[in-house]
Amino acid sequence: MPERRQIINPIYSFLPVEIDGFDLLAELALDMRWSWNHAADELWHQLDPARWELTHNPWIVLQTASRDQLKRILADSVFRKKVDELVASKRHAAETPAWFQQHYPRSILTV
Length: 111
Prior knowledge:
The chain is mostly helical. About 55% of the residues lie in helices and about 0% in strands.
């Protein structure tokens, strides 16, 4: 069997994936629920108030935050608790059957 090579996009080498908690922030930033669910807005505002006010785009805020800023803010226990709660809520929502699946569990559309 041939050896599998992992292909890594060079853009990801610029992301600070070694910082504890960055992966959780990335998960939140890439979740499109942010466009209508504003529960995480305060996180992005705390990370970079000026860029957040300018873009209201969490992925841009996250990509442009300095490593020092990310380390500092992720070391804050209150900030980190909020991140953990939002990720848990997002994951729970993704695993919970939606209204249609609850009301029409035998529908062929739920398969």
